[in-house]
Write a structure and sequence with these properties.
The complex is a heterodimer. Chain A is an all-beta fold. Chain A has strands at residues 5-7, 10-14, 19-24, 32-38, 45-50, 56-59, 62-67, 72-77, 86-96, 99-104, 108-113. In chain A, the strands form two sheets. In chain A, strands 2, 4, 5, 9, 10 and 11 form a six-stranded mixed beta sheet that branches. Helices cover 0% and strands 48% of the residues of chain B. Chain B has strands at 4-7, 10-13, 19-25, 31-37, 44-51, 54-57, 64-66, 76-78, 87-94, 104-105, 109-113. Chain B starts with a strand and ends with a strand. By secondary structure, chain B is mainly beta. Classes of the chains: A mainly beta, B mainly beta. Chain A binds chain B through residues 4, 31-32, 34, 36, 42-46, 49, 51, 89, 91, 93, 99-107, and chain B through 4, 35, 40-45, 48, 56, 58-59, 90, 98-108.
């Protein structure tokens, strides 16, 4: 069974703090890694799709890096704001039994206190 | 506005009844997906379709059925054979048949079976 692990599972920070989450995955047969943000009462929203080792992507105060050789991706939020409160999901694209799919981690719930 | 519409938002059914969850998209996306979320677990893939009139089983297809007669629509039927149907169901779509494109999600349907 392939596992995509996210840590920590939850995080409470104060407004202005910077945060760092980790997504770990088996490094063999890597194709792509997705990051999503899921705010309460809304639908998950794509942040990044990363495909190359060493990729770094940025969207405003949020950035992500990818290391396919060691099997991890970091999501970094600089100067967290209350509106950043959400569950952050990572998902690994794999092939299994001749078909392709995305395998999601359990998510990391971030709460930013004003 | 383009997007994915899932209906209804909440659905209640008696055990033994089949129920169909609606998913419609006007994004002109080829691929559509159904995921299930349970507490403490990552999103799990039920079925996906990469083109009209074709679909594949995901990891937990038992007790579910789908159809893809139109590009815009991908309804999911939860049959009485599904042992634990109470869950939150998310529909998604993407622009291409591969998994490098980000998924666009609906707002979900919460199904309760008693």
């Amino acid at each position: 069974i392939l596992n995509v692990e996210q840590s920590p599972q939850s995080l409470h920070v104060q407004e202005g703090d910077s945060t760092n989450f980790t997504c770990s995955f088996p490094s063999s047969n890597f194709y792509a890694l997705h990051w999503y943000r899921w705010e309460t009462a809304k639908s998950p929203e794509a942040l990044f799709v990363m495909t190359l080792n060493g990729d770094e992507k940025k969207k405003g105060r949020i950035s992500a890096t990818l290391n396919t050789k060691e099997g991890y991706s970091y999501l970094y939020i600089k100067g967290s704001q209350p509106e950043d409160s959400a569950t952050y999901l990572c998902a690994l694209r794999i092939t299994q039994g001749g078909s392709e799919k995305l395998v999601f981690g359990k998510g990391m719930k971030l709460t930013v206190n004003p | 506005d383009g997007g994915i519409t899932q209906s209804p938002k909440y659905l209640f059914r008696k055990e033994g009844q089949n129920v169909t969850l609606s998913c419609e998209q006007n994004l002109n996306h080829d691929a559509m997906y159904w995921y299930r979320q349970d507490p403490g677990q990552g999103l799990r893939l039920i079925y996906y379709s990469q083109i009209v009139n074709d679909f594949q089983k995901g990891d937990i297809a038992e007790g579910y059925s789908v159809s893809r007669e139109k590009k815009e629509s991908f309804p999911l039927t939860v049959t009485s054979a599904q042992k634990n149907p109470t869950a939150f169901y998310l529909c998604a779509s993407s622009t291409s048949r591969g998994w490098d494109s980000p998924l666009h999600f609906g707002n979900g349907t919460r199904l309760t079976v008693t």
